[in-house]
C-alpha cells in the first residue's frame, strides 16, 4: 500500500510522521533551498491594514525558521493570506488588500532587530533596511550546532524581505540571491488561482524554487491545494515541521487514547461543517456538549421548535441518526436547556432567557417567538455543561457557544473557558483548545495560562479527530510504501461503553408555570 493512500488509517499516517526519521531536525539542510509552508493568515489593523495585531501564528513557527536558517538552509517562506479572488480582482486590488507586507515588516523587526518597514526594493525582493544581525545569527548557528553554515546571513541580514511574487521570474530571482542562513518571504500564494485549485502547473512552479519542502502550517492540512499537497509531487524531500509534529503528538495521542472520561464541547454555526466530527465523537467520547447556532438544528431534530433562529433542515435526519447512536452507545449528549434570545443579532435588544422544552416549544407556539433569535446558551445550560466537564479527565473544545463577538452574547463561551480553566487547575484534567474562535475567546478572557494545549488549526484539528481526510498530512508520505498488512488477527472485542460519570444524565431544566401548563413561554 502507498503510504499516502486515502484509505490508510489516519492513526498510522500520524505514527509515520512523528517518527525520528521524519524529523527535519535530523536532516542535512546546509546550503539547500528549503521551502517552509507556514500559516501567516494573521489579523491586521482594520484601519490601516499595515500592522499585525495578533502575531501568535508567526511566533509559533519562529523556532522552525531559526532552526533551518541556523543550520545554513536558504529558507523560503510560503503562506496564504486572506481571501483574494484572482479570477475577479486585479493584481493591484489583491496587493492593496491581501499583501503579506505587514508580515514582512514584523519578520524584519523580529529577525533583523530593525524598526523599519519592509518597503523598498533590491535583490528581487522588497528589501528591508540593513542592520548588523551577525551576532544573533552566530548565536543561532552555535545553538543549532551549525558552525559556519549560516555565514552568508552573518555578513548581512537574516531576513531579506518580501518577494514580488510566489512563482515566476521575480520569485526565482529572489530565491537565487539567497545566501545560506537567510530567509525570504514569498508573496501571497492565493494571488494565483492555481493554489486553491491545486493546479499541477502552479505546484510545479512553486516546487522549482526548492530542494526540500517542510510543512509547518497545521491549520491548512485539511486542504487539498497546490502549496499544501500538490507541491509534494515535485519535491523528493518532504518533512512535517516541528510545529506540525507537536500538534500531532498533542492532539492525536491525547485524543486517540485519552485519559477517561473524555468530554468534548463543540460550538459554531453550521451542523454541515461538523456533523461528521460529532458522529465520530459520539463513538469515542463519554460526554459531548453542543452549543452555538448548530445546537438549534439538533434541538429541532429532537422536536423543539426554535422560531426564527436559523437551522439546517437538510441535516435534521442525520442529526436524529447521530442522537439515536449516542443513546444506543450511552454517550452523554448535552444540548442547551435554556438560551439567551435577542431581537437583534448585532446587539442586545429586548433580550431574555428562555427555557427550551418539548412540551413548551411547538410550531404553533415556538419558545423563541418570531423576530427573536437565540444568541447564547442560558445560565442553566452553562451550569449543566460545567458540571459534566468537571467530571472528565480529558476535555476538548472547539467553537463558541453563541455570537461571542458581541460581548453580551459571549457569557456562555466564557463559562466554558472558565470550566476548562477550573478543570486544569483544580482537577488536573488534560484540556485542549481546538483552534479557531475558541482560542480567541480563551485569550480574551485571560484563561489560557493553564490549558494543556492550544492548537493552531480549527478545521484541521476537527478533521484529525474525525480520523478522515487530512490530505496535507498524507501528501508528505507521497512515493513511500508501507509493508503489506499481516494476516488479520482475531476480531477484537468491541470498544467498551463510556465510563460512568460522577454526573447524572442532563436533567430537564425546570420549566416555569406557563410551560407546565404546556403553553409557550413568552
TrEMBL record:
<keyword id="KW-0324">Glycolysis</keyword>
<dbReference type="InterPro" id="IPR036043">
    <property type="entry name" value="Phosphoglycerate_kinase_sf"/>
</dbReference>
<comment type="pathway">
    <text>Carbohydrate degradation; glycolysis; pyruvate from D-glyceraldehyde 3-phosphate: step 2/5.</text>
</comment>
<keyword id="KW-0547">Nucleotide-binding</keyword>
<dbReference type="GO" id="GO:0043531">
    <property type="term" value="F:ADP binding"/>
</dbReference>
<keyword id="KW-0067">ATP-binding</keyword>
<feature type="region of interest" description="Disordered">
    <location>
        <begin position="112"/>
        <end position="147"/>
    </location>
</feature>
<comment type="subunit">
    <text>Monomer.</text>
</comment>
<dbReference type="InterPro" id="IPR015911">
    <property type="entry name" value="Phosphoglycerate_kinase_CS"/>
</dbReference>
<keyword id="KW-0808">Transferase</keyword>
<dbReference type="GO" id="GO:0005829">
    <property type="term" value="C:cytosol"/>
</dbReference>
<dbReference type="Pfam" id="PF00162">
    <property type="entry name" value="PGK"/>
</dbReference>
<dbReference type="GO" id="GO:0005524">
    <property type="term" value="F:ATP binding"/>
</dbReference>
<protein>
    <recommendedName>
        <fullName>Phosphoglycerate kinase</fullName>
        <ecNumber>2.7.2.3</ecNumber>
    </recommendedName>
</protein>
<dbReference type="GO" id="GO:0006096">
    <property type="term" value="P:glycolytic process"/>
</dbReference>
<comment type="pathway">
    <text>Carbohydrate biosynthesis.</text>
</comment>
<keyword id="KW-0418">Kinase</keyword>
<comment type="similarity">
    <text>Belongs to the phosphoglycerate kinase family.</text>
</comment>
<dbReference type="InterPro" id="IPR015824">
    <property type="entry name" value="Phosphoglycerate_kinase_N"/>
</dbReference>
<dbReference type="GO" id="GO:0006094">
    <property type="term" value="P:gluconeogenesis"/>
</dbReference>
<dbReference type="GO" id="GO:0004618">
    <property type="term" value="F:phosphoglycerate kinase activity"/>
</dbReference>
<dbReference type="InterPro" id="IPR001576">
    <property type="entry name" value="Phosphoglycerate_kinase"/>
</dbReference>
<keyword id="KW-0460">Magnesium</keyword>
